[in-house]
Amino acid sequence: MDSGLLARRSLLRRSAAAVAVAAAAPLAAPAIARAQAAAGGAAGPIRIGEINSYTAIPAFLQPYRNAWLMAQDEVNAQGGIHGRRLETVFRDDAGRPEDAVRHAGELVNVERVHLLAGAFLSNVGLALSDFANQHRRLFVASEPLTDALVWSRGNRFTFRLRPSTYMQCAMLVEEAAKLPARRWAIVAPNYEYGQSAARWFKELLARARPDVQFVAEQYPALGRIDAGATVQALAGANPEAIFNVTFAQDLTNFVRQGNTRGLFERRHVVSLLTGEPEYLLPLGDEAPEGWIVTGYPYADLDNPRHNAFREAYRRRFNEEPRCGSVVGYDTVTAIATMLRRTGGATGTDAMIEAMRGLRFPTAFGTAEVEFRAIDHQSTLGAFVGKTALRDGRGVMVDWRYADGAKYLPPDEVVRQMRPQSAS
Amino acid sequence: MDALILQALNGLASASSLFLVASGLTVIFGVSRIVNFAHGSLYMLGAYLGWTLVTRFAGGGAPGPLGFWGGVLLAALAVGLIGVAIEVLLLRRLYRAPELFPLLATFGVVLIVQDLALWAWGPQDLLGPRAPGLHGAVELPLLGLRFPRYELFLIALGPVVLGLLWLLFRRTRFGLLIRAATEDREMVGALGVDQRALFTGVFFLGAVLAGLAGALQLPRESVNLHMDLAVIVEAFVVVVVGGLGSLGGAFLAALLIGELHAFGILVFPRITLVLVFLVMAVVLVLRPHGLAGAAPAAVPPGAPGAAEPVIRPAPLALRRFALAVFALACALPSVLGDYALSVFADFAVFVLFAMSLHLLMGPGGMASFGHAAYFGIGAYAAALLAHHLAAPMAAGIALAPLAAGLAGLAFGWFCVRLSGVYAAMLTLAFAQIAWSVAFQWVEVTGGDNGILGVWPDAWARDRRVFAWLALALSAGGTLLLLRAIHAPFGYALRALRDSAPRAAAIGIPALTVRWLAFAFAAGLAGLAGALFAYGKGSVFPTLLAIPRSVDALLMVLLGGVRTVTGPIWGALAYAGLSEQLVRATDHWRLLLGLAIVALVLFFPEGLAGAARRWWEARESDGRR
Amino acid sequence: MSAPPPPVLEARGLVRSFGGVRAVDGVSLAVRAGELLALIGPNGAGKTTCFHLIGGQLRPEAGTVRLAGRDITGLPPPRIFRAGVGRTFQITATFGSMTVRENVQMALLSHAQRLFGLWRPARRQMRAEAEALLARVGMAEQAERASGVLAYGDLKRLELAIALAGRPRLLLMDEPTAGMAAAERRALMALVARLARESGLAVLFTEHDMDVVFGHADRVLVLDRGRVLAEGTPEAVRADPRVRAAYLGGVAA
Ligand SMILES: Nc1ncnc2c1ncn2[C@@H]1O[C@H](COP(=O)(O)OP(=O)(O)OP(=O)(O)O)[C@@H](O)[C@H]1O
Ligand SMILES: [Mg+2]
Fold first, then answer.
1. Mean local confidence (pLDDT), C162-188
2. What is the ipTM score, two decimals?
3. C77 reaches B (C-beta below 8 A)
4. What is the torsion angle, in degrees rounded to the nearest 10, for the CA atoms of residue A310, residue A312, residue A317 and residue A320?
């Protein structure tokens, strides 16, 4: 028998063994982890399980995780929570909610995390929220914007940091209502976030300005906008103003085609999230001017707390913080503040009690933020301002901080939207 | 009127872009019959390399010494070389593997490129410079309308490239050989032409076209990490609608899709999600070989069947081994922790899912790129019953296979009338249509936010009980499939695959048998989907999306499409590997891609195929 | 007074062309129960095309095919099989992923309308019948081999067994003895002739080997460029000067 065949066979055996190990490892691992967790005891670290779509949305989530780790290190440098270190186990759901649920199971049962956090995509957020509800765990949703998360599908175990679709729309409607424009067009990505944003904007604006009408609506597939045709279709309706919900590569392509074709000339544009550096910076010197946007003026926001945050972030990562950075940083701050409030106790009920009405400082350096007891939504706000070009890049000018607390529906409305079981 | 003309021009511009990508794909497919999943990655690399070459070799964002056009052309050539590397290092070794096997390898390349691109260019979208001389818009003569210069340039470029390719194919020896090989691969081999060089040349050409298409997007679109998957499916649709291997057909199809998109937006703004798939479904139903594709030269009655191995009853040792594995699987839940139990249930689901697809791909000889449709329909059936009717789990699990089976009957009726990649792409079209229903019919399905709260009944809520339930149903379904493969029905399927004329001459009704097989496989996939829904507690449109169909394909190919139990091992290996890697490292895509490539190279017959070869070699050694 | 039973096969005026060339051009023929009719002619004469027109593999452009009086023109092959036609192919067609016996079992199962069973293994069904058929064609010892690895002559025999599994009234054999040694040919044709006599099977076959043709056919029909050149008893055909000129010339001399 020749040696080539032999080598092949032993290789085959080894690979077969590798496959067996690959398939069997997850089944064997928990015993070890359990043992470790037991050994950790009560004085061990407090563990957060963080699940996010890292490979699907890296542009937002890399800065997010950077700042998360920075905040965690700061907490630990100050002696942790009552002497216990804060630790985070990160998992990538690759944009699939069903994978997020699997990771949640692993984090809770194997990694023995004390609470769950994270989520960028709305459906991942909802899936995790349902998991938290089912398994009676605290879930601090950092980014997912869907209103359902705290309202129609809200539950006792889920809290959300970021201003929701509704809140950001309300902030923009306030400005949009001041515009003379009556004929509006909408462009929004064709999924839940885009559709809800369009719906709220229409509803709220119509309430503030009964004289407006919506003359065109475009719903390009998320991530696949056919920008030329979409721009032309909007232009064809000849609106006086446009409400844009697209972001990331859709936004870039939309803006480029819109600029080339003069869609934005002599038209007002009101645009969700476009002031966030994640989306504004990639536009480079083609960033639009004079759009009314929500976002984060990272360079010009000048107050001691934010300056310290920005400095620390720059020093550590050699780049400017993004909106994701603030979201990551604030999530950790909120969790740490909550844990101090429980006295380091990590029972789910105690943590939920501490989260309700929790006040904590944001990296924006603006007023303290509160997790409302009524619907578990935080009052973190956003900056509303205009876009402009400076040194060949887009920035926000004439901005103001819109405090989230002011852009939420009246309490009785909120109570009606939220299921009874969620209180 | 003006608006319509402008919209038509927009359609033409998109059509040109689409054609550029699709032309490379169709040339490669025509000659090598490889379903090159990595074509989108080549396109993305073209854009990234173009960006680097154009902007970085001067600094300050202004075009570098190469200038814009030099950078674009160099990027295309560089991508061509990457294509050559992929062909020489990887695909060349797989030409004799079962059909579609190279798809697995190219999928590995996709994963690798995704991680490498993130590492090399960072997560942020990049903005390419505008093309010099083609800024802004011009007034169109006669019409008095303004239209972007660069888009006009693209509109002209499509036909120019088509013309150049036409000249290449008609006027050069290389082109002549490509055409000959597209029509009859064996014959070119018989002519004494160096096939290897020809294939490498074709890959170079195809990759250059992909790279060029990518680099030419610089002035109009952002360069980002999602370009690969965004373009690949659409490019395949164009290739298939046009007729595999047909450049003219691809051009026509690109025009059709580009224009329908542009005008579809005016009429149904939400249609962009499914439009291309609707078009593909309609075209394929009416023209089973695409717009310009001809039916492959009628297979002469009695052409030698593919070299498929004989399926014999499992040897005693293997049956004992299987029993032992099953006994182990039964015992396992009693010692597993909560998470391991949920992974265990997932594995059980994937095994059944892969096995159900294998009935079609293996004995059936039909590929399906849309098997997730039935998985998802099963899951949604269970979830809708639970959500709207508060039905008990037993009802969900009983009705899900029925719903999926009915969908299989409906879709299968069309799919079994087609063959090869056409049939596979039609399954994909139906799956995407089903997906878009789940995605857009928000009132019923909850849209992309899905349906939550699909938890098992109280008696099965314990993870351990549920794991056993999943095992029982998965094993039951798998057993049913195995029995069916060895029963007359499975034989009839194989008979149709081995020799259609012989099967017809002994009275086997091809369409009926295949149709029922389709529904049967769909039903069991639906069962797997329902189990998955109860295991996760929720359903989302991602359950019917393309990546899940691809997962199933990979599991079957990895396990060995020409074996009977291969998909079981393929499912365990693939699911186990990805589960481990995702937890272990941020670079799981790179490692998973490398693992897939390695497995493909070392086990071209799949894991179970390799095991069988090893077993047979041992047996014959023993006899000696 | 009773009319004589119609012939098992009666084809009238069959026409089929490929790209303007008439491969079969107005062919009529009839085969009675128990009769062996040989279809001969030079390469490309249209013999195989005739078989395909009768067996349903191709649709005739004009003409009719009747089986025992019933019109079966243009039916798809499975229905023609069910009407009682078994056939072998010039380029052999068997199921490569099955053993020799399973190939025959497949045909038996199909004939018995038992194709849709999902549980009982096929290889345990109709096994004895399959073995009997294999024994008849002299393939009993090879039952367990993969059909893909058989020698050409054995494949032909297997095809015959498969064709017989449907209990046909009409057997179409396209060059049934190609690839066999002379003794094997004679044995096989003798078997077919016996089957025809015993069970009233009608046989239409083509053959290039003139010993086989003149040794076993009851009648011979000569085809040339798609047209019937001559028809009659072997002796009459052999004596026909046109046939000699067009075709047999050197061979029969
Ligand atoms: N599918 C086809 N497409 C085009 N031409 C065909 C086809 N089948 C047969 N022909 C042509 O029809 C004519 C008759 O062919 P056929 O196979 O019937 O001849 P044959 O008498 O069986 O010849 P042989 O003795 O070589 O088997 C030939 O000229 C052949 O080239
Ligand atoms: Mg012939």
1. 92
2. 0.94
3. yes
4. 10
